[in-house]
Amino acid sequence: MAISDPSPEQCLEPGYFVDSDHPAIAAFVEQVFEGVTPVNDPGRAVALFYAVRDGIRYDPYNVSGDRDWYRASSVVNQESAYCIPKAVLLTAACRAAGIPSRLGFADVRNHLQSERLREVMGTDLFAYHGYSELWLNDRWVKVSSAFNIELCERFGTLPLEFDGINDALMHPFDALGNRHMEYVRERGSYDDLPLDEILEAFAEIYSNSMGQTDIDAESDPMFAAEQT
Q1: What are the backbone angles phi and psi of residue 184, rounded to the nearest 5°?
Q2: Residue 57 needs a FRET pair 20 to 30 A away by CA distance; which of 43, 49, 73, 144 works?
Q3: What does pTM read for this prediction?
Q4: What is the dihedral of CA 166, 194, 56, 224, to 10 degrees?
Q5: pLDDT digits (tens, 9 = 90+) for 27-49
Q6: Domain 12-219 belongs to what topology?
Q7: Are strands 139-143 and 101-110 parallel, antiparallel or unpaired?
């Protein structure tokens, strides 16, 4: 069972979903650090952040009820995923690199949501938006690795940048000053993914169409793998 509000000491051990001891995670970290290994934890965290942010395309339609699909060792081999699996992967990679890391969640409203996604979800509320919390310089730093840079360019939104010091959470406005992301409710911090809790919330909030295999990113030009 996931522990709520875990300490840094509790956030170095592998979990079922944050399986930081898996060989696939070790290989991912080694690949990211290949050639030039950052000399400190903030540098390692920054390198891993960009690898996850841009290495896996954001896809809000790619939602699964399969528990093993959410394990970091599975996510690392996916071409696309939504915010929660990407946060699980970044959290696991940071633990594998020796950085205490945990998962954070919040409900957010996306004021620039595509019409197709709003139709499918029935709301602009994204419950349990997932991000990582990294223990750097003796404090928790919140980092969202969800939106890859190509998607930001397509949306006209500002990509999140991470300097290893300051929080990197969703921007409240886009590049033109339009309202973008609004954080409306904190859901807490966990050492591992509280998947049952999250899926129960999804079932209560969203229409039955969420997670069906016949609805995917290719039906929405904003999230399709190739822009139409």
Answers
A1: -115, -20
A2: 43
A3: 0.89
A4: -110
A5: 999 999 998 778 899 999 999 99
A6: C8orf32 fold (3.10.620)
A7: unpaired
